[in-house]
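Dear colleague,

Following up on yesterday's call, I've attached the two folding results inline so they're easy to grep. Please treat them as preliminary; we haven't cross-checked anything against experimental data yet. The first protein's sequence and structure tokens come first.
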Amino acid sequence: MRTRIDAKRIGLSTFALPAAAAALLALAMALSAGTAGGAGTAAKAPAAAAGTAGAPATAAGGDWPQFRGPQRDGVALAAHLVRSWPAGGPRLLWQVPIGEGYSHLAVADGRIFTLFGANNTEYLAAFDAASGRQLWVVRTDAELSNDQGSGPRSTPTYDAGMLYAQSAQGQLLAVAAGTGKVAWKRDLAKAFGARVPQWGISSSPLVEGNLLLVAVGGDRGHSAMAFDKHSGKEVWAALDDKPGYASPIALTAAGVRQAVFFTGSSVAGVAVADGKVLWEVPWATDYDVNAATPLFVAPDKLYVSSGYDTGSAVFQFHGDGGRVTVQQVWKSRDMKNQFSSAVLAGDYVYGFDNGTLKCIKVQTGEERWKQRGLGHGSLILADGMLVVLS
């Protein structure tokens, strides 16, 4: 089926999505190989704007080393995808059953890394990207049991031969990517009062230089934290906010390198160097479900969005002698990213307004087009197209 969407003349090709979650492994491998390997939707989009969140320094052009990709913005770099798929969908290369959960995939050095739950246990595992063969598996925690689906929620982060993983119930681990050997482990609940939100810890760790930035959700000023990535020792802690579900990003705006944490009650910027809170904006959403990762709109803006009729907003950074403030540019209920994060391409934001795929202008919030029928999907921008899991 092929349809035309108005405003940007975007072509949309839709095929059936495999029901088994395990097929995501084959999808990730095929995408990294340059083919649209896995059923979904491909829609033409403008090229992405340059420069957003921080990325692991060792990420190669074809790697996907962390949640939302090299720049943590949902954009695949140097991808080359076919423009049409056969009627039955792309050829399935391999498929591996791995258990349950919501963890996405990290792809680096010809390997795929993910978290999953099985037999009441949460695991971190490595697979060969060419064959799907399991290389190693290590226990991370007891499996989270939840009425909205059990298992892990976050995605492991790869950096310089190491993996950093955050379990759904508050274990933080550093694991050698080649062997699965645990280098260090921190119990965030016991050490820092980390609170597990209603639907499990969903944030993915972020590597920033020698620091590991983590949305801990702890009490007494331990909502956001930085750890030494080599030893696991605490470097700084900040914010008293209740836990949300979003992952941190890092950016440079108003002349300051800062980490942005989207908590259960606010969006805030923290100085990467020392954890000083630079700015904070209250952001209340029903059930504290602030889950979609914010987008940096270079050089000086930030896009934030939530569901439950909260909507989205763009803030502009201002700097004065090292002091950073943010000013709201616009706010609208036309784009409500409940849990699926949006992507930025040029002057446009593409994302799911609950169950409707939409395109809005990032400078004004004006809606340009929408496409129903895909449900609460998720998307990646690759080779000028939107790859959508429906």
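Below is the second protein, in the same order (sequence, then structure):
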Amino acid sequence: MGRCYLQLSFEERIKIAKWREAKMSIPEIADRLSRAPSTIYRDLKRNHFDGGDLPELAGYYALNAQTMSEKRRAYQSAACYKCAARRLASRNSSREARAGRAKGFLTQAPPHSRELC
């Protein structure tokens, strides 16, 4: 039976932000949320606000983390749709190429580029 991985919710991110502000350890936060410590570490690393010109504002903020996560998920989802469309187009052109070779025409389907995914 496979595992089901769920993203952190906004409520969980609020708890993480409050507990980190209270200097709670990451393993303890993970235990309270029933999550793996690596999940908490990863979320803190990916969604940490660096502050830019105002380093005193740097830190982990729940709303900022949720927004960054949603943007990343939307971008990855759009990239997957584009990739799937390319694979479908490539598959269709492969069928046309096979049909062309059967008639004696030499054609080749364009290769799928992993760099674009």
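For the second protein, one point worth flagging: Residues 105-110, 112-117 have pLDDT under 50 and may be disordered.

Best wishes,
A.L.
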